[in-house]
Specification:
The protein has about 375 residues and is of the alpha/beta class. About 30% of the residues lie in helices and about 30% in strands. It has two domains: about 20-85 and about 180-380, Zn peptidases (Aminopeptidase, 3-Layer(aba) Sandwich); about 90-175, Glucose Oxidase, domain 1. Keywords: Signal.
Length: about 375
Amino acid sequence: MQTSSAKRIVFFILFLSSLNTFAQDSIYVRKTINKLTSTFFWGRGYTKEGMNKAADFLSTEYKKIGLLSINGNYKQDFSFPVNTFPGKMLVEINDRKLIPGKDFIINNESPTTNKKADLIKIDSTKFQASPDLEVILKDKLTWSVATEASEKTTIELNKKTVKEIPKTIRVDIESKLIPDFKASNIYGFVKGTKYPDSILMITAHYDHLGGMGAETYFPGANDNAAGVATLLSLARYYSKNPQPYSIGFICFAGEEAGLLGSRYFTENPLVPLNKIKFLINLDLVGTGESGMTVVNASLYPKAFALLNEINTEQKLISKINPRGKAANSDHYFFTEKGVPAFFFYTQGGISAYHDVFDKPETLPLTEYNDLFKLIVSFNKRIVQ
């Protein structure tokens, strides 16, 4: 029988060991974010095989971690249309060549365009060259993904870097609509020791915006390399520490194109949705100076109260803000199917979002360790 002093020593050693584990996984998370935001994955999007390369990388990581697969395959394949920009991306204003992503972006539905024209001022922010080519001045440039192409090209200019009044424009842009772009959700799990048919699910989307032309891509460090890296670190933990319930992990494709991967999964589930006890979706979790927000907090008040109780006990996140139902990430279609789900995102730090400045070197990962501990503790108590 151990003395109280001996017990305290053992506890302290275990505590230091756990801190070291978190520190080691912080290094793993940072390396993973750096890798996923590299030029090799080209924004994990629709040109240069970016998304497919990321899917292969994640499948390999799942296998290294020791996650189980269904029928020997981590991938759930599906397809959807997407408008891509694989080549030329030239815009000149007043004979000055602009920098893609910094000086301008193009509307994501824009077609292939090659034209030189004078610009007519429509109002203080809008200029028009022709019915199918216009220029808009913007305070901030943010891009997204389109699943169709239009007949009109819109060029958005950054008012902070393009200060002259636009009078002439030259455009040479290559666009390609892919009607059946092939993508994959990546699913793996740790089998429960006592209730293997009941599942706690952790999800994050791994796709981002990809490239705008042959030389410019959107790294997507906070959105959502940080969420994927946190998911993988949790998978490493649970692989070494199996729980009574199974723990599932899904990295979704197609989120930026309209939550397409998670919608496909809920319509073609690899596991019965009624077996999922709770789902936590991670997106934009690379900061945390100003706390975090929980979407669906008002739908599941008992679960939200438990989350706050744990956070107060362990003194983790500075503030947890409640939010109601919102179709703003991959938790949404699970909620619509009756699966209890929270969507976590952090706040503070960098303001980069859907632009070329969402880079790993500016991502603070302020609350990674605390968020990790909060999720592990919540999963342990939500099923009690």
